[in-house]
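We modelled the chain as a single entity of 552 amino acids. Its sequence is:
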Amino acid sequence: MKRTDLLKAASYVYIILPLIIFFLGWTKLYLVGIPLTIALITSLYLIAKKECNSDCKFHFTRAEVIKVILIVGIIALWVYFSGIGGLTWQNLDHKWRNEIFDVLVEYKWPVVRGTQYGTNGMSYYIGFWMIPAVIGKLFGLSAGYIAQYVWAVIGVLLVYLLICRRIKKVAVWPLVVFVFFSGLDIVGLFIINHKEFLDFTLGTHIESWVAGYQFSSFTTQLFWVFNQAIYGWIITLVALENTNNSIVLVMAAGLFSASLPAVGLMPIVLCNIWNNARRIRKIKNISIINAIYTSLCTYENIIGLFSAGVIGTLLLSNNAISYTAGSGGQTKIKALLLLGVIAILILIVVIEIIRRNEVFRNNVKRVLVNNKRLIQILLVLIGLAFVAYGANHGLPANNRFTQENNICKYILFLGLEVGIYILLTYRKGKHDNIYIASIVMFLLCPIFILGSSIDFCMRACIPAQIVLFVYVVKMIDDIVIQKKKLATVIMILTLLIGSVTTISEFARTIHGYHEYEKNGIETVRTDEIMESMNFCSKAEDSIFYKYFARYY
């Protein structure tokens, strides 16, 4: 029976609504705001009709509804301890995020301010705050902070329900695993810095146990960078359920709300596009190229492409992208983008030639089949050489975070953060190209440096972490059912040792509550936001502020 898939519909609304608010509030209405808003609402309608009105394979029984109520309670408590909404003590990063939110509420949109360095416009992934900021503008700043908390709870709930659908059950224990899931940071601290290990007490932040590399636990992500984390989780899970019809639109929404996770999601999305195309090829008896081409050429994806173009002009003007600490000056971002565009155009032309020319297509297939093993070996060798170089140097530039990087620390980091989980789940996931793509992302994320910090490593890995977590939950189910005692013991010990990281995050919130009672919600100065390379761009040099933004 056909029924509306409310979970998927709600997830699409959650990720696309901020885009609509942004276009209406920040851009020229006649040029961008109204046309793209109408187009996005139309896209939501088409998505609801195509993807959310199908054979629903997942629905709640009465017993599961009771579980969901308990799950909502756990999520509400988890989000409370994160400090989102300023209801309790917050980690250091919240000071900047609080000020971003204050600026979004109190300043006219688009946010532009004259500084000692010129006129700066906000250029940041602000999707999470769009709805709460509107609430704040209408009902006051305090109401806006409460709206942040509620919006976060809704987002995390959608994330967890999407996870439940992937594991095909509604249960409380996977949520507990999600909250406490982490790499073995405490073991890394013991190996790398024995003195700090001996001084360790609950409340110590140990995610950065090795300089230059970090895969944050889900709790750390929520407690420190919630604006990227929640949207990074949800776009990953929505993309994995996507049928190619609206995948570009999903990525555009991800670019706006969680830019670095969206970049890390791209290889996984490419695998999913391929998988969907293979299914379409079997059903319609057409070539794989035709299947990819027809499944991606949809109204929703075209609108997503336009949306991504506008958002791209906002984010790519960000000073953190234009400058790196290691280079000491402006990088060749525009040249790299031009090369990227040229490469994509060449790829499109090649695909079209292959699609139209059967003889050429057969010759390419013959070369690939006859030399499959040689091509695989060459790709592996090139990949290993690239990874080894990056692990020792950091790409594209060294900075103070990566000066001591070397291949030994890189291997140790990967082994303790994700290696044991991969060993436990590899047999189950080795035939899934999405799982393999996630492993590749774990290998690549630590070696890329963007701006003056290691944000790319910490955030671009989020989609791969979600995929790995789903496999860990499935593996736990299997080993318990099959009564594999050794595997069960290893998995439980790994999760318990990893949970030290997240327990310490909770402890720090508890320890800091007295400070919160004294100081309340803390922020940095507005100048630290509007003059920071991480959050702004030169308005006069930005394509977005010159051509798309409404008059400021």
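As a brief sanity check on the tokenised model: The CA atoms of residues 245 and 297 lie 8 Å apart. The chain has one domain: 2-331+396-548.
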